[in-house]
Amino acid sequence: MPKKNLTRHIEALIFSSVQSINVQEIILALNAVFEEEHIESQIFESLDLIKEKYNRDDSAIELVNLNKGYQFLTKKEYHETVNQLQLHRSKKKLSQAAMETLAIIAYRQPITKLEIEQIRGVNSDYSVQRLLEKELISIDGKAETPGRPILYSTSSLFMDYFGLNNLNQLPQLKDIAKEENSIGESVE
């Protein structure tokens, strides 16, 4: 296979890999697709060509050697721009279950996962984990009960995200309850 074509295949492998890809993985992938054996020296030559291509000033990404492998990353001068996009996207993606869990934590903090699950009636492992990843909640110590379960509270990012100065600015539950959601007759 011509060197230029090999280089493009390696570039495609690195681009499509979620995490860094090592030389052995590149060789395995290429040997599985093509009938000829590829050796490390060919791979390293192609990697050098790819590095040169992306080291130019007209590219926003670069090929980086990480953890004994290779990965495309944004050049440092663009990190703030990419970070803004990530923040914007992460704010939009809270599921209904995550919102319910977040509301319970906000109104009942500090609270254990077991207490959250008792209120919701379902397992909340995933929702709690997502909220921790998004840094909307934080671990606030351990409860003084048997087993010493972890206590969760809202974070300062939660306050920023919802535009609150303190928790007293959360809407009161009585302000949220709708009459149409009540059961039975209203007795005054």
Automatic annotation (TrEMBL):
UniProt-listed PANTHER family: SEGREGATION AND CONDENSATION PROTEIN B
Pfam families, per database record: SMC_ScpB
Biological process according to GO: cell division; chromosome separation
Keywords of this entry: Cell cycle, Cell division, Chromosome partition, Cytoplasm
Protein name per its UniProtKB record: SMC-Scp complex subunit ScpB
UniProt-listed InterPro entries: ScpB_csome_segregation, WH-like_DNA-bd_sf, WH_DNA-bd_sf
Species: Pedobacter frigidisoli
Domain of life: Bacteria
